[in-house]
Each structure stands twice: as structure tokens, then as C-alpha cells.
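Moderator note: this is an archived Q&A kept for reference. The question asked for a predicted structure of one protein chain; the sequence and the answer are reproduced below.
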Amino acid sequence: MRLTRSSFAALLPSLAAAALGALPLLASAHVGADGAAHHDIGFAQGFLHPFTGMDHFAAMVAVGLWSALIARGARDVLWAPLGFAVMLLVGALVGLAGVQVPVVEPMIAASLLAIGLLVVTRLRLPGPVAAAVVGAFAVFHGVAHGYELSGDHGAGLAIGGMVLATALLHAGGIAIGWALRRRTAWLPRVAGAAVALFGAALLTPLA
């Protein structure tokens, strides 16, 4: 079924409701916060995972926001979120295998800075390029999640939940961006600047 602008707009209330309904999960405890202890986890714990760190949460919402702001049509909006989700899964599988990737935390911080600036500038990139740019950063987000889950029973289900939560966060960002793209220019820029400043603040102690 073809996704038209009118049908996409009709989905916005549902997408926004799903995103807003997930916001209280930010107060939940972080999966893997018990360090080296391994235990039984599942889909629900994995679903909570992206909501428990503001760095991951902000990056995923910002990807959706940027993609909506720069899209020429409804179909264009999916490139960056799909690129992020696919490469997040790749990174999660790498982390789940116990592979330690260097500079994960600095790259996560850099992703916030870069994606925030993309929102501020509304830099329009070809769809595949946009997917590749955010996908490169998504690998590090995925590794961070996957490594925390490695050794836990049910980690595969947890990663499935994590990818679904990522899609919902993207959808929330898309809903916000689609609603604002023709109404106001300054509000998305303020949001993007906040994400970029957050990334810069995280990078400072790592420099």
C-alpha cells in the first residue's frame, strides 16, 4: 500500500501517542546496570533499554525529527530511521557476541552533536547518504546496548524489543517533525541545538 502524505498525516496522532506513552519509561532502571551479573531477560527488558539512557533516547528521536524536516515526501522520511535501525541491530549483534569496540562512548556523544546539527541546519542529503550517515553512528549505539546484554539468557528477545523501541522513538521524532516542518522554523532548531549541546557536553570530559 502506498504511503501518501494524507495517510501519513492520519497516522501522526497514533505515533505521537505511542511516543508520549513511552516517556514514563525513562524513569526505569537501566538494563545491564548490575554490571557483570547475568540473569534472565526478555523482550520487555529489551524494549525498555533505549528509554533508560538520555543519550540513546535523544539520538533516536532526533533522527526521526531530522528525517521528517528534510523529507520531500512521505516515502523519503524512512531512509534515515531505517538506516539507523538496521545498523543498530548490526552493532547490537556485535556487542552481544562480546566484541569490545573502541571509542564507543565518544562516538555516541559525537552522534548527538552531529545529528543535532543536522536538525538545526535541516541539511538535506540523498536518502541513501542520510541512511549511511546515521547508520554509522547507530553501530556504536548498538554495540553499547548489545555488550550490556551479552551473556544474559534471552538476549535475542531483548534485542528484538530494543529494535521495536527504537522504531517507536523514530516514529515519535517523525511525528513531531512532520507536525512542525511547515508551522515553525525555530522550535525544531532549538530542539536540535539542545541535542547538539548535550553531545558536546558528553564529549568534553572524554576529550
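Archived answer notes: Helices lie at 5-22, 43-48, 54-70, 79-96, 104-121, 127-149, 155-180, 186-203.
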